[in-house]
Amino acid sequence: MRAPFVIGATVAGVAGIIAFHPHATSSTATFNAPGTRAVGGTSTNAGATASGAPPAAGPAPAATTPSSPTGTVPPTTNAPTTTSPRSTAASGTASGSVTQYPFGVLQVTATVSGGRITNVSTQVQSRDPRSQQIDDAALPMLRSQTLSAQSANIQGVSGATYTSQAFVTSLQSALSSLGFNG
Amino acid sequence: MSQPGHPGAPDREPVLCHDERVMGTVVSFDVRPGPVPLSDARLALRRACVALARADAVFSLWKPDSPMSRLRRGELAQADAPPEVAEVLARCALARDRSAGWFDPWAMPGGLDPTGLVKGWAARRALEVLVAAGVAGAMVNAGGDVATAGSPAPGEPWRIGVTDPGDRSRLLCVVASPGAVATSGTYERGPHIFDPFRGLPRTRWRSATVMGPELDLADALATGLCAAGAAGAQFVAEAAGYTAVVVDDLGRARVVGEAPIQEPAGGHAGGNSRGRSFLGNS
Predict the structure, then answer these.
(1) Confidence band for A152, pLDDT divided at 50, 70 and 90
(2) Which of A124, A122, A115 is closest to A178 using CA atoms?
(3) In this structure, CATH architecture of domain B14-264
(4) B248 CA to chain A: closest CA distance, Å?
(5) Residue ranges of the domains in chain A?
(6) Are the C-beta atoms of A145 and A157 separated by less than 8 Å?
(7) N or C terminus of chain A: which is more exposed, having fewer CB within 10 Å?
(8) What is the ipTM of this complex?
């Protein structure tokens, strides 16, 4: 039989977890190390919009039309450097691939300065009001998560939340064109 | 426009991305075709979406005419239901067993409700379609529950950020996916996790993230862990191949097992972090 716990038992319970795995915590000592703060919010749209998915594209039925491949559109300014470690002092601003998704068309522009991501902005053309609402909530969050994590090299986000793969992909494309392989 | 495999630009391998609105959420795909022609990968992606739609049609409780809805009302015998129903219920029974009863679709208000497992199960099915097509890597992110196969680039793991439940604009950590990363918690959708032993909704962790080989089980264990609190550490530890990261009401993160944590968010900053120790500040 499992007696219900009271809230007060949580602290003891935490100790219980640690007790189960005394060795489990060795490699990861800390969380939530302070990342960079978000810098600015202005969208500096660098350069030409990469082609591949014209912003005025017609409605893309969600069920049947996977978006065109992304990450393959040559971005705007700097050519990709070869294999640069994440710590290289990449700098510049570049727009990522224009990515179609069921809610519209999205393009991320990223600015890297001194090897750190200093700004991420998103252009979205959504179609219906409900999608607009989702985007309005999700995209700033994704932007902030990116700045906080300082890592372009995240393919997805786990959490009870909506994340747009189009955002992640366009961002990766923008950052890799800047030689930022975080 | 596209130059897959362009020499000197190894990071320009083609990537197929797609966001599918289904099962009451958004399911995101990231497919790395590898040796598979792009057209074949696209086709597989479409078929994966069909698999999701099929799962939704069979199991949705929002649709009164779905086989699962009819089964619940007693209008359909299990023997007459689509074969997926028996398969999902078998997975539910396994999840109930592995979670020591803390995830129990049979104890839900209103009767049998496998919804908590179906999303992860459907994502696995979709992933299997892509794997069967031979792609080098694929990720299916079903509203924050992530299933992965292969790798995004040779020798690299799928790296998945875990949302900080105390500040959703930040990542708690980044993990290397062992196949599945599932997060449960009330911070996004409000109370919806059910304690089968008390018959009430309840959550003991602000969020619980479970990693392991199979998404449906990881998702069920995360849900059970949220309801069970500290007691859940034991069943997660006993589930071979599964680990967890939980965040308590005070925002402290703890791990269960050898979780494949790659870095705390904001890592590489060079020490001096005021982050929270797993072991410290009791």
Answers:
(1) low
(2) A115
(3) Roll (3.10)
(4) 8
(5) 37-177
(6) yes
(7) N
(8) 0.82
**Residue B159 burial by Cβ neighbours in a 10 Å radius (0-12, 13-18, 19+):** buried
Give residue-wise pLDDT tens across range B81-91.
999 999 999 99
Q: Which two tokens stand for residue A19?
A: 């007790």
Which residue of B20, B26, B200 to mutate against A (max A Cβ within 10 Å)? B26
Cβ separation A20–B233 shorter than 8 A: yes
The predicted-structure confidence for A98-120, as pLDDT tens digits, reads as follows 876 656 777 888 888 887 888 88
Neighboring chain A residues of B224 at a CB cutoff of 8 Å: none
**Are residues B160 and A20, on separate chains, in Cβ contact within 8 Å?**
no
Any A CB within 8 A of B90 CB: no
Residues of B in contact with A158 (CB under 8 A): 141, 144-146, 160-163, 175, 181-183, 209
pLDDT at position A127 is 62
Q: Hey, which bits of chain B come out as E strands?
A: 16-22, 25-32, 137-142, 145-150, 159-163, 171-176, 180-185, 194-195, 200-201, 207-212, 243-247, 253-256, 261-264, 276-277
Per DSSP, the three-state class of B11 is: helix
pLDDT in tens, B142-187: 988 999 999 998 999 999 989 888 887 788 889 999 999 999 986 6
User: For residue A79, what are the contacts with CB-CB under 8 A and spacing of at least 6?
Assistant: A177
Give residues 168 to 207 of B whose Cβ lies within 8 Å of A: 168-175, 181-185, 187-189, 195, 197-198, 204, 207
B54 to chain A, closest Cα gap in Å: 11
Give residue-wise pLDDT tens across range B110-140.
889 999 899 999 999 999 999 999 999 999 9
Please give the C-alpha separations between residue A54 and each of A57, A58, A74, B91, in angstroms, as whole numbers.
Answer: 5, 9, 15, 44
Beta bridge partners of B29: B18, B140
CATH number of A37-177: 3.90.1010
Whether residue B104 lies within 8 A of chain A, CB to CB, comes out as: no
User: Which residue of A lies nearest to B28 if distances are taken between CA atoms?
Assistant: A165
The listed range with the strongest mean pLDDT (A25-29, B29-33, B269-273) is B29-33
**Residue in A6, A31, A153 to test binding to B, most B beta-carbons within 10 Å:** A31
Decide: residue B266, CB within 10 A, 0-12 exposed, 13-18 middle, 19+ buried: buried
How far apart are alpha carbons A132 and A5 in whole angstroms?
A: 42
| CB proximity B4 to A under 8 Å | yes
Mean pLDDT of the region B68-83: 94
